[in-house]
């Protein structure tokens, strides 16, 4: 028996992973249900754990750094190129936004990041518009509303940057960037739901 | 010749009188010179309040040695050797001042818009360089000489490279052959100043650095705003100005006005704020909902956004001038005239505002307009920072589809962007009336801002 075969046999026969799907998956599902009923509950739990463990981190900044990861719930699972583009552009925007904490202290690099964010926003909106043009949906209003919300939060992000360059408070930029990432996810979720 | 005490030789009297006269004159000149418009700066990085650079200016005393033109653009401003070689050659050939005397005394005036150089005595202007024309600033200490060198754009842009041009091989890779066969290279200017000491040089460099920060930060945010604007206003339907979803227009208007800190005409008139810098005022609804209701959200937002931008970038007098030019264009003035006059009105620092006019230019004039943008260096972000991929695309000009000009030509023959839809004359008339109303509002805004200015 080769090492690889031994490894596979161990994995398939081992009971240790049973804890994950027997215990944790139900917990995750319960947390998700509870979050739907009480938005913000998950954040409260995390904050309390951090407080209990006396972990000194900037939660908003950490959230922003982690927010670029793909979430299954927010991916449009249609094979057509336009929808794959939508996923790609959304991912690209979230990636750039998540880099803000690393770039914000270097003015030159931060300005370059802002330019990249601008292009990413434009490309995402162009992709959304392409989908609108190509496909006529009955529930178009929901999609258009979500697009408008995204634009609104983009403008808010721009205003936050203007304020940041005056008062230097980076935390507000992180908060605004998180909101923009959330709106990006909602666009994907809306497309996923409607189509 | 012996002289008695108390009696001065006539020869000495004349000679010394001349010497004393010159000294006295120099002293009088120094005492007569006006005080500079300056501010105390926070050490050690000589920080200055950005508002001073945006809304005011700061002056520093320098010596102006001269300006070198047709310098190869590939000159490395960080290379002490390269720069000094050029300066030494220029001084030898008397292109730059050799000895430094009070004759070179000048004043450099810094703001977020330009660097202006005037003679210390007489205040005659030497030159003015817009900030976006400055490529680099260098400080070179050459023994007791403290030089501050500004590498700037040259108007012509390219010129034939003379045979004496050093590093000709380098220029051949950068340039191209002109019709005459001469190698063309990109050229620049070097503005050479001298200051008293290292501290003064560092102060000047740091001030310029702060100016760059302000300008390029503003440009970057403008780029972000334009990208959002473009993406938001690109039509989602087949190039129709009219939305059949009237309820969503109200939602959009509220959404746009609730969150973003923008002006509205009513808000600005009530606030009485005639400062060019933007501030947050609560937006109030437009009164023209009846007419706006007949135009799509896209067109209305385009207009509102452009008016908002003008409000923050132009003075009251300039807004009136803009309204006049728009009125003239719509009543028959050529697109060429319109472009030239607007370019003059906006100047170098605000020429990017021309980009915002794209949606309002009728299709028949759009080619000329685009060519014009290219010649003045604002098309595709040239002259304005683009992103790292140089992305900035023209959006579909939905608003121009039915714009009429003074000739009364109504578009609508269906050849816009491949759309099969035709725009009815009434839709074009509605748009035309909207533009008229907007022009009148702009003029009224300018007048009201003037009145607020004189009201105690």
TrEMBL record, chain A:
BP-aspect Gene Ontology terms: angiogenesis; apoptotic process; heart morphogenesis; regulation of Golgi organization
Localization: Cell membrane; Cytoplasm; Golgi apparatus membrane
GO CC terms in record: FAR/SIN/STRIPAK complex; Golgi membrane; plasma membrane
Membrane association type: Peripheral membrane protein
Membrane spanning stretches: none
Keyword Cell wall biogenesis/degradation: no
Keyword set includes Cell membrane: yes
Superkingdom of origin organism: Eukaryota
Ranges of residues in domain Programmed cell death protein 10 dimerisation: 34-55
GO molecular function: protein kinase binding
Keywords on record: Angiogenesis, Apoptosis, Cell membrane, Cytoplasm, Golgi apparatus, Membrane
InterPro entries: PDCD10, PDCD10_Homolog, PDCD10_N
Assembly with partners or alone: Interacts (via C-terminus) with CCM2. Interacts (via N-terminus) with STK25 and STK26.
Annotated family: Belongs to the PDCD10 family.
Name the record gives this protein: Programmed cell death protein 10 dimerisation domain-containing protein
Species, as recorded: Esox lucius (Northern pike)
From TrEMBL, chain B:
Biased composition (Low complexity): 275-290, 395-404
PROSITE patterns: PID (PS01179)
Renumbered residue ranges of the record's region Disordered: 267-295, 395-432
Every PID domain range: 62-218
UniProt GO BP: heart development; vasculogenesis
Annotated Pfam families: CCM2_C (PF16545)
Alphabetized CDD domains for the sequence: HHD_CCM2, PTB_CCM2
PANTHER family: CEREBRAL CAVERNOUS MALFORMATIONS 2 PROTEIN (PTHR21642:SF4), CEREBRAL CAVERNOUS MALFORMATIONS PROTEIN 2 HOMOLOG (PTHR21642)
Family indicated by similarity: Belongs to the CCM2 family.
Protein name: PID domain-containing protein
Organism: Esox lucius
